[in-house]
Design brief:
The protein is 5% helix and 51% strand. A hairpin with a 5-residue loop joins strand 19 (195-200) and strand 20. It is globular, with a radius of gyration of 24 Å. The chain is built from two helices and 37 strands. The protein is mainly beta. It has three domains: 1-92, Thrombin, subunit H; 97-390, Methylamine Dehydrogenase, Chain H (7 Propeller); 394-412 and 420-428, no CATH class. The two termini are 42 Å apart.
Length: 428
């Protein structure tokens, strides 16, 4: 139900009010199909909402008020009719990427289970969400008094570790996939500020944590603090263990990336950057380290700390980095909404422009088929890497614009699919 009071209301069939959707101007058109609601009105925008009333995004192309809205039965297409004398068709991209809209605030971290069955996301909305790798939500863990900031699965996929802004680290049992909610095993206390970074040794017996108190803490699974490292001068944003568990690497907003022995003894400082360093990772084969700072540079290092290669990107504010499971692709995220895929030789393979805000988290699924991203636009995106890397760009583009070319009044007849001059049409 829509109204000139700038609201649309969701009701049950028995007349119970479920949710009030608030817009900037009078809401005139509304339609609902499956999991989504679309509204339009005097603000000239189509607004998309989840069925529970969570706002997803604005679609801005009309020049005047929108008088009516209609959605296709599968919810993948929206038609909007406006006073500007146009009807516009909007189509959700379901071929190369799959957006998930369950979170209500910034997504801080993403982790995938090594057994390939689950991935986890944590958000400023005080929730941890566990998903099946096809994007189906399995369960939500709420933490009302604090917000999760980091998450990681153990190498054996039997447990999960989270870090929070209440200064705690929590260990969760995820070995029973029929159990809901997941079981909290224990809470580690010792940090004096928000925990942003986590790493688990390959033997699944040692946990490394770091964050705003600038220390790295090494724990066993019983919660015993084994080592306390005064590591950096600013927030620690990234941690990773080497494949053999003998080395630990950390990155910080103080502009340094540092290499440590597993017992906390310093090995070497890899870089001194004038910009904050967020992302760091060991290659899956364990033969080198990759790091990104907010200076456009992706750097590859040997395990002895020798610089192997510097790849200069066009992205000034790099935030995240992760390797594909086969170690052949490096994915990086940035504050300008971009995700990029790079080869080890320094070749840009693809740019993925689907996020609408800062990219704060990246993770490949265990089989390497999907890359998962998230950030401050509240959306989790599953990217189909195989299709993206092997897509026929002309064919894909034609599939994407075919409806537009067929229906837009400003397109000449010769440029329409199946037009009278088909041999000259943009897309056959």
């Amino acid at each position: 139900m829509s109204s000139s009071d700038r609201t649309a209301k969701i009701w049950k069939t028995d007349g119970t009010l479920v949710k009030t959707l608030i817009s900037n101007e009078a809401v005139i058109g509304v339609d609902c199909r499956g999991e989504y609601i679309a509204t339009g009105g005097k603000d000239n925008q189509v607004k998309l909402w989840h069925i529970d009333g969570t706002f997803i995004k604005d679609l801005k192309q009309h020049d005047s008020a929108i008088r009516d809205i209609a959605m296709s039965s599968d919810g993948l297409m929206v038609a909007s009719a406006s006073v500007d004398r146009t009807v516009k068709l909007w189509k959700r991209n379901q071929h190369l990427l799959k957006p998930l809209y369950e979170h209500k605030d910034t997504i801080w971290d993403i982790a995938t289970s090594p057994d390939g069955k689950l991935f986890a996301t944590v958000s400023e909305d005080n929730t941890l969400k566990l998903w099946h790798t096809d994007g189906k939500l399995w369960q939500t863990v709420e933490q009302p008094q604090s917000s999760f900031r980091a998450v990681i699965f153990s190498p054996d996929s039997r447990f999960m570790v989270t870090g929070s802004n209440n200064y705690t680290v929590q260990l969760w049992d995820v070995s029973n996939r029929d159990q809901s909610p997941v079981k909290l095993l224990r809470t580690f206390k010792g940090h004096q500020a928000t925990v942003f970074a986590l790493a688990i040794a390959p033997n699944s017996k040692i946990i490394a944590t770091g964050g705003d108190d600038r220390t790295i803490k090494i724990w066993n699974l019983d919660g015993k603090l084994l080592h306390n490292i005064q590591a950096h001068k600013e927030r620690i944003g990234g941690l990773a263990f080497s494949r053999d568990g003998q080395l630990l690497v950390s990155s910080s907003q103080d502009g340094t990336v540092k290499l440590w022995q597993a017992d906390g003894k310093p090995v070497k400082t890899l870089t001194h950057s004038k910009a904050a360093c967020w992302g760091v990772a060991f290659s899956p084969q364990g033969n080198f380290i990759a790091s990104v700072c907010q200076d456009r540079n992706l750097k590859l290092w040997k395990l002895d700390g020798t610089l192997l290669k510097t790849i200069q990107t066009e992205r000034e504010n790099l935030t995240e980095i992760t390797f594909s499971p086969d170690g052949q692709i490096i994915a990086i995220g940035s504050l300008d909404s971009q995700v990029e895929l790079w080869s080890l030789e320094g070749k840009l393979l693809k740019s993925l422009p689907g996020n609408q805000g800062w990219v704060m988290a990246l993770a490949f699924t265990a089989d390497g088929k999907f890359l998962i991203s998230g950030g401050d636009d509240r959306t989790v995106i599953l990217w189909d890497i195989k299709k993206i890397l092997h897509v026929n760009e002309l064919e894909y583009a034609c599939d994407w614009v075919r409806d537009y070319l067929r229906t837009n009044l400003e397109v000449e007849e010769r440029d329409r699919p199946n037009g009278t001059l088909r041999e000259h049409s943009l897309c056959p």
